[in-house]
Amino acid sequence: MNLLGEYKLLQSDLKKHYLKIQGDITKCTKLLNDKDNMGDILSKSDLEVLLKPLGLIITVRAHKLFFRAVSCLQKIAMFTSTHNTENVLLVLQLILPICQDEDIEEMVQIKMLQTLMLYLDPKNTKIDRQLIKLILVCIFRLYETTSSLVKNTALATLRQLFSLIFENLNTVDPDDKESEIYGTAKELLVGLHCTFDPDYDKNPNWPLISNDESRLLALDLYCLVIVTTKEHLKKFPEFMNFIQDQIVPELKPYFKNVSEYKFGIQLIRLFNFLVQYLGIGLEVLIEFMGTLIDCKQWVTRVVFELGSIILTDVSLVRQILSNNELTGHLNMSLL
Question: Distance (Å, rounded) from C-alpha 121 to C-alpha 281?
């Protein structure tokens, strides 16, 4: 069904309930009837007309009308481009309160994530820090749900956002620190770092709740960043220094108490990628493996990771074998 059809259904449903909004809906249907093609609704004034009654309905939360308004909002998003920041902000300002409502049904949450994904299309997205921040807040609010379906969809959307930013970083001049892509990538890395910061609660700029689950998520996103950018990240001294001087030391305390297997696996993966692609963290990785090797459940994984590192760079064999503590533990564990 097209957008005009959605508004006509909304108009029909309103006749039975909220007569005060009827006038606004009538303006919407007239506006859409007068349009030759949907691209015309990209003017800010027209978009404000279309969104005004939806905002009122979303605030009221009348069940049937609310679902109809959400469908209209989703279709409007299809015809707004991130190249027009003002228009997208108007749409996101209606999406945000829906995402923040803990009582919203699962189907609506999925619709909101599908709508956000429209603004993360690599072919059509112009990266703007303000928009990315708002989209990020929406995704994280939905990620905090108890629904596994919504959580997994939110994670996929979040990974798409990070992929979009860091794939585009590969096209940025390292000296262009004023670039929206550069600035956004930096803010995302700093945000992930906040998740491991003891003073996290004092940082209002990162919307992810600090707990074991969010730290596991942060490790996964760190891995995504390194794999997406690979050696290209070496061209950005500020990022390299941040990883080496801030991120790596922040993670070291977690080596001594890895109670969660998934967390340990992600730590190993991250440091493996750091070694492979950026040439940093080998000593830290060896130290970490040395703390794990005493536990039988880790032996196979440690051997696998060591093998993958060696295959990547044979010159690392000598450094690994020179660590007597690790090789000694490894020999004992394999006997």
Answer: 34
**pLDDT digits 0-9 by tens, 170-192:** 889 988 989 999 999 999 998 89
pTM of the model: 0.85
> In the chain, where are the structural domains located?
1-79
Choose among 40, 36, 62: nearest CA to 50: 40
Query: Distances from the Cα of 310 to the Cαs of 13, 116, 266, 294, 333, in angstroms?
Result: 66, 41, 19, 21, 20
Segment 126-180, tens digit of pLDDT: 888 889 999 999 999 999 888 999 999 999 999 999 999 999 998 899 889 899 9
Contacts 24+ apart (CB under 8 A), 22-30: 24/49, 24/52, 24/53, 24/56, 25/53, 28/53, 29/4
The continuous run of DSSP H or E covering 174 comes out as: none
Are the C-beta atoms of 235 and 174 separated by less than 8 Å?
Answer: yes
Can you read off the two tokens belonging to residue 297?
A: 């459940």
How many helices, marked H, and strands, marked E, lie in the chain?
17, 0
